């Protein structure tokens, strides 16, 4: 079996390092927010996770289209890997969003367009994985996955719009605070640095996990091929 | 030059004829067995009844939830219809029969979509007046009828495409709602809000954004589904 | 009439057809034999334009697949082991539907002729779901003949038929194969294939392993040779 390629090993170490630095930046370097206090620190990883969720979806759609055009299996592998990562990070996004909302608005859930959209995106991800699971033929699995990813991707912005319109016409009072605030705050320079650094770090995490996952799939494929060859006799 | 134009016209005629044939076939088969419509109607009425018992309300508050109840009903009944409509094609291999015809795949898609839409509209046509009667609310408002058509259209356009995938999976029956509902949310929200707007006699300015969203959704997804259907049926 | 070169088809990572070559002359009746999973149905699906190969060339009646698929479909009649018929419609409604899908002229005439050909004129107003398996198969052949195709593809047409129905199908196949049509039929039944076909090809391990002339062989020879090719 092949050993982990050098590039991947280096990337993994870089990512681990970045994550350590980012954790420091978020927990120590960034100043304490005046109004919300320490819970605001969740925001950095919350947005970064959301960013990865969206990026993962975008990548999945692009490679999905590539698969439909070229019918090459590797595009499907990338798509599946991306969606799997997207599921996890969108979930992180939703949970951290909830954790952040609780002390601010005294509620675990809010009909904020972004939060609802993230949840719907998560449901689309899960549906994608369930669709794949229910199909035995690998080519059909790849095709259907690509088609659903595209349909899902088109619907998410429209879902966001629909909740947005809902909010402007029927403003919902959340808890006892002004909903217009939506937990916004002014970012100081240090906060901004921590924020950007988190984004970069999470992007690295995404790329590393993606590479590992793709590699895993290739190894699994090799095993499958050997099995077929052995059985054919 | 003229010959090519004539050939193109002939091919268009054949294309439209194929769509018409698929619609006619679905309607005729349904007229015979009445399984699909029967199931959808009974289910829809049960849902309406259950909702109204569960949300025991006085006349005033009922006005605000009517649109929600109606659209949830259509959503669930619609899923039933879509599943059955595509299962027919899959089980007896009929989809292959359709694919063997020398006509563009999209004709099959448009034919099935149109037939499914007709079925759902028939269900709506029964449920809406019945709801009006049972609960003494006048639902026969012109704007509302437009919303029903636009909303059902968006739902069926995506539903037909996803159903043709779901029906080929092992987990066929539960898969369609799981695939469909997250994607069809904009239609639901917009349709419920627009319906509510018309029922409560709100200003058109308040209702327009919802109608716009419905139209945008319908256009985007008709185009997308029409292009993607080929990939679903071609092996 | 049918030309296949270096045909490759895999399901995911499992290869099914491995560089298959086939040439069928106009008017030939080819029976394709082979064990389960050899790829007979896969090959037929590719020939009928329902599936696309991973690599290789397929030409039917002068048109290439998959590029000119629509042109090919107009010249193909396909009968598979699934009926491809709508149970809730009558026999003649089914035929009428397919006539319209094929955009044919003279729909009523064709429907009547097809029903006559397969001996189902009496049952034309009956629902297909009330038909026996044999009758459904006959109607399926009628369906395949509506547009008077040059090439006929049959995938295990005798599946599920009793003796009487099978014999009726024999007669029908002989009749239908006449008039210069090219026929490809997959089958398990060695003897039957030998009596109907002008040529027997054995599909084994993803390629055509042997091509035989049934007229020149004894039945016993045939069975032995088949065993040898598929298990050797």
Distance between the first and last residues' Cα of chain B: 36 Å
Number of helices of chain B: 8
**Mean pLDDT score of chain B, rounded?**
88
Report the helical percentage of chain A: over 70%
- Rg calculated over all Cα atoms of chain A: 21 Å
**Overall SS class of chain A:** mainly alpha
Query: What is the helix content of chain B?
Result: over 70%
Instruction: Report the oligomer.
Output: heterotrimer
Q: Can you give the mean pLDDT of chain A?
A: 85
Poorly predicted parts of chain B: none
Main interface by residue count: A-B, 32 and 36 residues
Shape of chain B from CA axes?
globular
Form type of chain A: globular
Content of β-strand of chain A? under 5%
What kind of sheet is the major sheet of chain A? Answer: none
Q: What order do the helices and strands of chain A follow?
A: HHHHHH
Please describe the structure with a list of short key phrases separated by commas or semicolons:
heterotrimer; B: 235 residues; mainly alpha; 88% helix; globular; C: 232 residues; alpha/beta; Rossmann fold; six-stranded mixed β-sheet; four-stranded antiparallel β-sheet; 36% helix
Tell me what you see in this structure:
The complex is a heterotrimer of chains A (233), B (235) and C (232). Helices cover 79% and strands 0% of the residues of chain A. Chain A is an all-alpha fold and 233 residues long. Chain A has a domain at 41-203. The longest helix of chain A has 44 residues, at 189-232. Chain A starts with 5 loop residues before the first helix and ends with a helix. Chain B is mainly α and 235 residues long. Chain B has 8 helices and no strands. In chain B, helix 1 crosses helix 5 and helix 7 packs antiparallel against helix 8 (204-233). The model of chain B has no long low-confidence stretch (mean pLDDT 88). Chain C has 232 residues and is α/β, with parallel strands linked by helices. Chain C has a domain at 1-75 and 186-232: P-loop containing nucleotide triphosphate hydrolases (Rossmann fold, 3-Layer(aba) Sandwich). Chain C is built from 8 helices and 10 strands. A 6-stranded mixed β-sheet of chain C has the order 6-7-8-3-9-10, sandwiched between helices. Chain C has a 4-stranded antiparallel β-sheet with strand order 2-1-4-5. In chain C, strand 9 (199-204) and strand 10 (207-212) form a beta hairpin. The longest helix of chain C has 15 residues, at 163-177. Chain C is globular and about 50 Å long. The two termini of chain C are 31 Å apart. The relative contact order of chain C is 0.18. The chains are: A mainly alpha (233), B mainly alpha (235), C alpha/beta (232). At the B-C interface, helix 1 and helix 4 of B face helix 2 and helix 3 of C.
């Amino acid at each position: 079996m092949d050993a982990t390629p050098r590039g991947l090993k280096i990337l993994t170490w870089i990512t681990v390092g970045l994550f350590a630095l980012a954790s420091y930046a978020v927990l120590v370097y960034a100043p304490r927010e005046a109004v919300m206090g320490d819970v605001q620190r969740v925001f950095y990883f919350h947005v970064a996770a959301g960013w990865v969720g969206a990026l993962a979806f975008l990548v999945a759609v692009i490679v999905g289209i590539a698969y439909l055009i070229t019918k090459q299996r590797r595009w499907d592998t990338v798509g599946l890997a991306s969606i799997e990562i997207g599921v996890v990070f969108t979930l992180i996004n939703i949970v951290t969003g909830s954790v952040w909302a609780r002390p601010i608005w005294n509620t675990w859930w809010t009909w904020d367009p972004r939060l609802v959209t993230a949840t719907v995106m998560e449901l689309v991800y899960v549906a994608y994985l369930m669709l794949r699971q229910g199909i035995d033929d690998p080519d059909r699995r790849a095709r259907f996955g690509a088609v659903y990813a595209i349909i899902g991707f088109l619907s998410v912005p429209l879902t966001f719009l629909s909740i947005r319109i809902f909010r402007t016409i029927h403003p919902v009072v959340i808890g006892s605070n002004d909903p217009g605030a939506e937990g916004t705050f002014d970012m100081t320079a240090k906060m901004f640095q921590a924020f950007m650094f988190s984004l970069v770090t999470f992007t690295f995490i995404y790329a590393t996990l993606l590479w590992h996952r793709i590699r895993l799939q290739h190894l699994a494929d090799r095993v499958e091929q050997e099995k077929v060859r052995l059985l054919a006799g | 030059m003229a010959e090519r134009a004539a050939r193109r016209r002939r091919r268009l005629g054949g294309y439209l004829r194929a769509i018409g044939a698929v619609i006619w076939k679905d309607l005729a088969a349904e007229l015979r067995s009445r399984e699909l419509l029967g199931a959808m109607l009974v289910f829809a009425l049960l849902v309406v009844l259950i909702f109204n018992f569960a949300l025991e309300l006085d006349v005033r508050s009922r006005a605000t939830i009517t649109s929600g109840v109606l659209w949830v009903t259509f959503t669930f009944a619609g899923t039933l219809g879509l599943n059955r409509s595509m299962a027919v094609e899959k089980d007896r291999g009929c989809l292959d029969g359709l694919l063997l015809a020398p006509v563009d795949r999209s004709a099959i898609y448009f034919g099935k979509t149109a037939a499914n839409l007709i079925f759902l509209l028939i269900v709506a046509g029964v449920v809406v007046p019945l709801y009006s009667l049972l609960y003494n609310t006048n639902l026969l408002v012109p704007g509302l009828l437009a919303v029903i058509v636009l909303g059902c259209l968006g739902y069926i356009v995506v539903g037909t495409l996803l159903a043709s995938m779901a029906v080929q999976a092992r987990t066929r029956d539960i898969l369609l709602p799981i695939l469909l509902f997250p994607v069809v949310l904009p239609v639901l929200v917009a349709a419920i809000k627009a319906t509510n707007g018309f029922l409560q006699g709100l200003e058109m300015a308040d209702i327009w954004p919802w109608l716009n969203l419905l139209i945008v959704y319908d256009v985007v997804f008709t185009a997308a589904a029409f292009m993607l259907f080929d990939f679903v049926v071609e092996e | 009439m049918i030309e296949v070169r270096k045909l490759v088809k895999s399901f995911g990572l499992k290869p099914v057809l491995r560089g298959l070559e086939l040439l069928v002359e106009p008017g030939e009746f080819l029976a394709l034999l082979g064990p389960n999973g050899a790829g007979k149905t896969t090959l037929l699906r590719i020939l009928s334009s329902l599936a696309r190969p991973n690599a290789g060339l397929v030409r039917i009646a002068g048109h290439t697949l998959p590029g000119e698929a629509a042109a090919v479909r107009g010249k193909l009649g396909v009968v598979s082991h699934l009926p491809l018929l709508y149970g809730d419609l009558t026999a003649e409604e089914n035929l009428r539907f397919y006539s319209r899908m094929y955009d044919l002229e003279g729909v009523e005439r064709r429907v009547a002729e097809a029903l006559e050909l397969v001996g189902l004129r009496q049952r034309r107003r009956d629902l297909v779901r009330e038909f026996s398996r044999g009758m459904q198969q006959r109607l399926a052949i009628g369906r395949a003949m509506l547009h008077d195709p040059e090439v006929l593809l049959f995938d295990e047409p005798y599946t599920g038929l009793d003796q009487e129905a099978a014999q009726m199908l024999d007669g029908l196949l002989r009749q239908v194969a006449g008039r210069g049509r090219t026929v490809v039929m997959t089958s398990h039944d060695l003897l039957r294939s030998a009596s109907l076909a002008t040529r027997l090809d054995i599909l084994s391990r993803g390629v055509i392993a042997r091509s035989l002339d049934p007229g020149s062989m004894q039945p016993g020879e045939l069975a032995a040779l088949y065993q040898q090719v598929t298990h050797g």
